What does this fold into?
Amino acid sequence: MSEIQIQKLAGVMGWPIAHSLSPQVHGFWLKRHGINGAYVPLAVSPGNFEKALRALPLLGFAGTNVTVPHKEAALKLVDEVDPVAERIGAVNTILVKDDGSLFGTNTDAYGFMENLKDHVPEWQPEAGPSVVLGAGGAARAVVASLVDAGVPEVRLVNRTLSRAQALIETIGGPISIYGWDDANALIAGANLVVNTTTLGMKGQPPMDLVLNNLLSGAVVTDIVYAPLLTPFLAQAKSCHFTTVDGLGMLLHQAVPGFARWFGTTPQVTDALRNHVLGVISGKDQNG
Ligand code: ATR
It folds into this structure.
């Protein structure tokens, strides 16, 4: 009788899940490294999320990613949380430990900073203030990564001030909060401007801010990646600022999970990026 090879299994839980690009990212790496494994999309409704998490060890999963709307619930449900996820207030990566318990972490802050370093290695976090637009889940990870990188002042701008206030209470560090009306004045003199709002996303209104008087060497980045060139980044490019699009954050945040589940640290390469871009344009054509 031939020996049965155990497949390594991981996935992504979300509701809905069809839009997730993570299966394409991990599938690319599994093939590239010739790993006997699978990474599957798991459509899990909020009502079934806890039961689905608890089933992971029974099903032989090494772990899972967690996406909208489960990231905050995952923080409360896993058996152990690392300090990064605790601080961000959300878990996006879960590891099943040998004893069947669940360990939760968050790789979004890592993904944001790795993407910046990858595209603009010469960018100096400490050279001036960073402006973060938005105070939702993604902003929490971005702000945490900027504080940890040594940014001297994070100017957090959000339409709803109470949400920005809640963010600074959990993240901590040199963060000041402002309403949307102050945004244009705050952008002047910035060393980095990050859009974490949904403005500029396909089907959403464009960003209404003006990118004027940034520091020399300043970078403008958007975590929106559909479209890749948002109106905000197009404006930045036309003003000759260095721009970084949002796709790289999605790719880089996947690295630590893959490494832990499948035992090989993968690379974010142009080939991966082109593969995912091909999938995005295919999805666009299919509606
Ligand atoms: P995510 O988890 O991806 O960050 P989210 O938590 O829904 O998504 O956050 C969306 C962000 O976009 C919020 O900062 C939101 O501002 P509010 O907190 O005031 O809702 C911001 N946003 C959405 N539409 C906006 C608009 N028309 N103008 C300004 N900000 C907007």
Notes: The chain has a mean pLDDT of 95. Residues 132 and 194 are 5 Å apart (CA to CA).
